[in-house]
Amino acid sequence: MSPHHPLDAALHLEPLSEGRWRGHTHEAYANMVGPFGGATAASTLAAVLAHPARQGEPISLTVNFAGPVAPGPFEIETTAVRTNRSTQHWTVLVRQGAEVVVTATAVLATRRQTWSAAEARCPPAPPAENTPRMPALDRVRWTQAYDMRFVEGPLQFDAPPASDQDSTSLAWLRDEPPRALDFCALAGLGDAFFPRVFVKRARWVPIGTVSFTAHFHADAAMLAAVGTRHLLGHARALQYRNGFFDQSAELWSPGGELLAVTHQMVYFKE
Amino acid sequence: MSPHHPLDAALHLEPLSEGRWRGHTHEAYANMVGPFGGATAASTLAAVLAHPARQGEPISLTVNFAGPVAPGPFEIETTAVRTNRSTQHWTVLVRQGAEVVVTATAVLATRRQTWSAAEARCPPAPPAENTPRMPALDRVRWTQAYDMRFVEGPLQFDAPPASDQDSTSLAWLRDEPPRALDFCALAGLGDAFFPRVFVKRARWVPIGTVSFTAHFHADAAMLAAVGTRHLLGHARALQYRNGFFDQSAELWSPGGELLAVTHQMVYFKE
Fold first, then answer.
1. ipTM exceeding cut-off 0.85 for this assembly
2. Is the pTM above the cut of 0.90?
3. Which of residues 61-80 of B touch A (CB under 8 A)?
4. Bridge partners of A17?
5. What are the structural domains of chain B?
6. B240: helix, coil or strand?
7. Residue A3 has pLDDT above 70, yes or no
8. What backbone torsions phi and psi does residue B262 show, to the nearest 5 degrees?
9. B263 in reach of chain A (CB within 8 A)
10. Does residue A170 contact residue A233 with C-beta atoms inside 8 Å?
């Protein structure tokens, strides 16, 4: 970990007492209001992984965004509610002052080598090097913290939306500046796709993720093997209905291994 | 609600104090070890929805199975950690004695009518009436509590598995005996698909869901309109790797509306 990388600075946690940590939002991950949700999700996971009682690697992480996170300090409370032989279950609360701003749960596991099989196939894409980088959005600082190269479904604000336009995007993604991949970075990358309603409507719409879940297939060695290279991400929504839409994304290694899948429910105002 | 339906009996909660309830596993939902996870998930949601402070309808539910649930009583503790104008965030713990057996979080919301759009399309299927019902499995009592009619991807134990066999299933599902659909029943139905590894391997494999998430698109009126009819469910896995696989399912109304999507990570031993 380089203390100079903005993600490491954003994930820096000061221990307060066993399982309690103080973090601080980082300007490199500023969103329209408060921090980018992927950075907050990564912080909850970082707090679990930093706990001395931690056992195993992430299998599942759910982060619920209970209220706006104000720029500034926050406190994370992590509790290992149950430790089994091969799995460990965590609950997490993030507070600012007296207010809970995030609830989360995580499941860790010690994996064993077993029969394994992939059903989904990595979608074909030209190499990241041959795909142009999307310029960061002026008004959204956190977009500067990712290198995003869209193969399909770019953001095209103020283009006339086709009535049957879908919201699928396929893109190469990595931290910017480059940083060796780990579980916290992967959680952030899993939320780095733009809200599907922006793609669907071809314009800005007020939104906020209410619940984000990441399911991890990779282990630490697979992430280390990716290093600082791009991941290929594939995102879509199934339905927008009365203020909420779902959004799912698969994250593939450059070698075509499925590393993680993320799912979220997002509030929108339209 | 009919107190005579086994699901209502399984979801019966005796109030202990504000936010604390005593439930009891029900033999109609018995699994190989302990209760069917979908019944446990439905109980956590039932406890949230029964709370006097409850505001809105479910948007998101995550249930983590921290340890085996023994047949017998359990205690559910629900906490509304944050209530906003239109959303409400809950944490839930289920205990048996001193042990936490389940952690859960739920997000409720009061929806407003907005622009809405479907991207996913309901897969074509012959009507439920023309699809034969799968016999319940002798050794798994809870399978008697559902009427399942497979259009694609039935369970075929001890058939020679094709090496490239996928684990997609398409099936009509409803409670058995028929029961008017509500959010708790929908959560249970979202977990009623057999573990994908059974379909993939064409045989029994020891498994256990570690984390289950349901994202709800339907409101109560849509569920009431379904009534006691079958839902069309579409389930698949993306990858099996070193002891865990993912499993997702969409649940469609007979009229082709997407009601909910569920995602889980499942432990397997193979």
1. yes
2. yes
3. 62, 64, 66-67
4. A20
5. 6-110+129-268 (2.40.160.210)
6. strand
7. no
8. -125, 150
9. yes
10. yes
